[in-house]
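quick one, 147 residues, struct below
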Amino acid sequence: MLSFLISLTATQMRDQAGEFAVFVSRGAGRGQVLALAAVEALLIAGVALPVGLILALGLATALGFSTGFLAFALETASGVSLARPLHVGLHALDWRPVAAIIGISLSIRVAAAWRISHINLAGFERQQARPVALWTAGRLLLIAVRK
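---
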């Protein structure tokens, strides 16, 4: 999970590097860029957490009717249930892992923003203009292997 969070955040930061470069070029300090990244991460968590919990509760409720692999208990025509569903609710949820994941994702997001918060627009454009040596070497290797 940690590697997924890191790779997802790296991809997001790479895509947003230009936006942060514009902010730095317009006079935003490193603290403002980090605060923006933190607020953005908290907003994403604030939307994703309730939506994820609602979807998870719905799925857990549906799975509560399961009597086996892809076999679900349904009510008969007379209204008699063939099986009792499991009771699902938020009362059994352990919030510590949820808080830990939010804290870890916030830390990763702010650390990634720290890495790119010093680049202004001119530096960003210069980085974009340079070919990445590793990518170029990989392409040359693929060309050599094909022949």
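The chain has five helices and two strands.
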